[in-house]
Specification:
With 781 residues, this protein is an all-beta fold. It is built from one helix and 62 strands. The longest helix is centred in the N-terminal third of the chain and has 10 residues. It starts with 27 loop residues before the first strand and ends in a 15-residue tail after the last strand.
Length: 781
């Protein structure tokens, strides 16, 4: 046999961490039970024998019975493996955990682990029903105290109770103290009378980074009463704490069961999910939480936790505490104040801060490209009765040290990334009070429900908000409330129809802001009111900019190589867009448009007819068939109707033209069935120089019918060799110049029905007609 019962594949977390490999076994093997092949009648006797034996030792604990009344002690400086999954002392079946039960035993942890220089591995075990008396008792399931390594794999720690660390209390006594959670570990249903319902990690390095199927869930930190006052109650899922001489670290990665995330559905007074404490008060030691994705496409997540006082997701509220988030999600948490985040008392929280630096934390994977690198979504202000409280989604105050989202000390290569903040509910989204440093950038803040405003700042020493889109939030007050603070508001796109942008006595420095209301921001060239930002698809949460948005290429470029909220390069000049200063190349808001195309939205009908309007009296539906050259499997728009008529009109789209020049319209079409009875099809186009936002204002100054050839074979797609050309001169063009495209089907020879399909509709641009006729496949038949 070998000296490993499961493969240990783990990232090199830091230099000097002990690495374990499967090697031929010469270690001692102990087995617990009364059957043949067993060496000891009790688990403790086997542990004692292993400690007396030099070298690596393995203890087999069969699952043929529940091992009860347990209060086990491991005190070793050696390598020791406790293994479940054995059906008897000689046979491993790998199908069932072995249960270690503390019920009926001493008021002590089910398992205590002590010593220095050791390596202890627990695999295939259920550790349950431990109960340590009082509010200061530690580790209901496991109390680890030492300067060695503890590995947990395929283990459940459930229904244990203690004062601190209901499931696990991990207490480091030296710099080598390490706890690693591997795959399929559940720390669930535990209770702390004080703090750390699931885990209390003090002065250790706690890693949950390569942990598929592992979760800290459904734990509770209740707090305790002294003369009518409740104390404690921090960290329903996890507490991270330091001591006067040792740092405390926890790194949480892409764990969870299904879509739960690693920290799920825990409850506390402060920090329903995680509480980062700095109880030592020592300036030389820190408590730090790292939350970062360690598997591509699977963000690290803190979700569905509740705090009855503050910090539903994360609480960092003592001196020398840090929460560092990268490619992470804070989702669906609730609290009366700080539903997502509660930060104060010299706390420090940074989301995607300097993420692109050469050494990301804890085996973090890069952010996805052209997608969010983190979300704060669906967090609610809520009390114990489930009622709204008017508290902030993110509360940052009481002399908090630093609060950063999407910022860096300099423009790093590829730049730090912002986050999407949407679907939250509260009084305010962000409430800042007496904060030393605030830097917020590259954020998309959309679709939140706020009874007051988006952001309030009081007494911030430094505050910068830039390159952010704030749009379509339901708010009951001004977007910004600034009292006695002078933040920098730079390159913001603020679209809150009917709301005042700025209130309060603050005196912000405003630069390159576009807003639905700009007078309160000072007006003038620094803050300009716009009729519409022209987002791509706000109803589906796509707040990127269309090519004709006034926010395109509006501001000067910024030195460096920073990126937008989705990781795309900034300062991408689009030649078709005229600007008074041709050097301006930076888009306003969270998103940078990378090129002119597509001008037609959803021209390939990617799964539906979204972004195409079907007016009353027009006919249309989605069809799964698609034209050659169109995106494979995307589909098409079908115009079908029975009866007779001069023509049947279908879907239409309003396209604002980003600048003067010649535009070439083309597409593909076909009819169904017998070619001899096919319907003629066409795209009708209408140019309005003053079409307004809906393309219906002003007179039609040009128009035409772009007809498709009649098919000669069954279900044959056709595409005209030459597109329809629409030319707009410099003198004619303005920001309201628009082109309306309408699908049309005409009667067939029998005159008794209409059926036409349209796909691959595109609009190309050139400064003159000669460059566009043969562009992008328009020379194809």
């Amino acid at each position: 046999m070998t000296a490993c019962t499961y493969p240990m594949r783990w990232l090199a977390i830091a230099a000097g961490i002990l690495m374990i490999f499967c090697t031929p076994a010469r270690a001692a093997i102990f087995a617990v039970g009364s059957e043949p092949g067993c060496t000891h009648a009790t688990i403790q006797a086997a542990i004692d024998a292993a400690e007396a034996n030099p070298g690596e030792d393995f203890i087999r604990i069969p699952h043929s019975r529940i091992w009860g009344d347990l209060a086990l002690l491991i005190d070793t400086g050696q390598s020791l493996y406790l293994e479940g999954f054995w059906s008897d002392c000689n046979t491993i079946d790998g199908t069932q955990y072995t249960t270690l039960d503390g019920a009926g035993g001493a008021a002590a942890p089910v398992l205590r682990i002590a010593g220095a220089g050791h390596f202890v591995s627990l695999d295939g075990l259920t550790i349950r029903n431990g109960d340590v008396d009082g509010v200061s008792g530690k580790g209901g399931g496991i109390y680890y105290r030492g300067n060695g390594t503890l590995y947990l794999g395929r283990t459940s720690i459930i229904n244990n109770t203690a004062g601190l660390g209901g499931g696990l209390y991990a207490e480091g006594t030296g710099v080598d103290a390490l706890v690693v959670v591997l795959g399929n570990v559940g720390i669930t249903g535990n209770i702390a009378r004080d703090s750390g319902g699931g885990v209390f990690a003090e002065a250790v390095r706690f890693y949950m980074t390569e942990s598929p199927g592992s979760v800290i869930a459904f734990n509770e930190a209740t707090g305790y009463d002294v003369l009518g006052t409740t104390h404690g109650g921090y960290g329903g899922g996890l507490v991270v704490n330091n001591t006067t001489s040792l740092h405390g670290y926890a790194t949480i990665g892409s764990a969870g069961v299904g879509n739960t995330g690693a920290i799920y559905a825990n409850t506390a007074r402060y920090g329903g999910g995680v509480a980062v404490l700095g109880e030592s008060g020592n300036v030389d030691t820190f408590s730090t939480l790292h939350l970062n994705a360690t598997v591509a496409g699977m963000p690290a997540k803190i979700a569905q936790n509740f705090a009855s006082v503050g910090g539903g997701g994360v609480y960092a509220g003592r001196p020398y505490t840090k929460a560092i988030l990268s490619n992470a999600e804070i989702e669906g948490n609730a609290a009366p104040e700080g539903a997502a985040v509660y930060l104060d008392g010299d706390g420090d929280l940074r989301f995607n801060y300097d993420y692109a630096q050469p050494t990301p934390p804890g085996g973090a994977v890069p952010c996805p490209l052209d997608a969010p690198c983190g979300r704060i979504v669906g967090n609610y202000d809520q009390d114990l009765a489930g009622q709204p409280t008017g508290g902030a989604v993110m509360h940052v105050g009481n002399d908090a040290w630093r609060f950063d989202i999407g910022c860096s000390s300099a423009n790093a290569s590829n730049g730090p990334r912002g986050v999407v903040i949407e679907g939250n509910r509260g009084g305010r989204l962000i409430d800042l009070a007496s904060v030393t440093w605030v830097c917020l950038a590259h954020m998309q803040i959309t679709g939140n429900s706020l009874s007051a405003g988006v952001l309030r700042a009081q007494g911030t020493d430094f505050f910068s908000l830039r390159d952010t889109t704030i749009a379509d939030n339901a708010i009951g007050g001004a977007v910004f409330e600034l009292d006695d603070s002078a933040p920098l508001l730079q390159r913001l796109l603020v679209w809150q129809a009917g709301a005042v942008s700025l209130a309060g006595d603050g005196t912000p420095q405003v630069e390159w802001v576009l807003a639905s209301e700009a007078e309160s921001l000072g007006g003038g060239p620094e803050a300009i009111a716009i009729p519409s930002p022209r987002f791509v698809d706000p109803e589906r949460g796509d707040y990127r900019l269309r090519a004709a948005s006034p926010a395109i290429d509006f501001a000067p470029p910024v030195v460096g190589d920073d990126r937008d909220a989705f990781g795309l390069p900034r300062d991408q000049r689009i030649g078709a867009v005229p600007r008074p200063d041709p050097s301006t190349s930076r888009d306003i808001g969270a998103h940078e448009r990378q090129g002119l195309q597509p001008l037609v939205q959803n021209g390939d009908f990617a799964g539906d007819t979204n972004l195409w309007l079907l007016p009353t009296g027009h006919a249309g539906n989605f069809q799964v068939d698609n034209a050659p050259g169109s995106t494979e499997g995307s589909g098409s728009a079908q115009i079908a109707q029975t009866g007779s008529a001069d023509r049947v009109l279908g879907y239409i789209q309003c396209i604002h033209l980003p600048g003067p020049g010649t535009y070439a319209l083309n597409g593909s079409a076909r009819t169904e069935g017998d070619p001899l009875l096919g319907n003629p099809t066409a795209l009708i186009w209408e140019l309005r120089l003053d079409g307004g936002e809906g393309c219906i204002d002003g007179a039609i100054t040009q128009g035409g019918v772009h007809a498709f050839a009649t098919q000669t074979m069954l279900d044959q797609w056709t595409r005209p060799a030459n597109p329809a050309l629409v030319t707009v001169s410099d003198a004619e063009w303005n920001h309201d110049t628009s082109l309306t495209v309408i699908m049309a089907v005409y009667p067939n020879a029998s005159g008794n029905g209409f059926n036409g399909l349209f796909d691959a509709i595109a609009l190309e641009w050139s400064a003159d007609a000669g460059d566009v006729i043969f562009a992008d496949g328009f020379d194809e038949p």
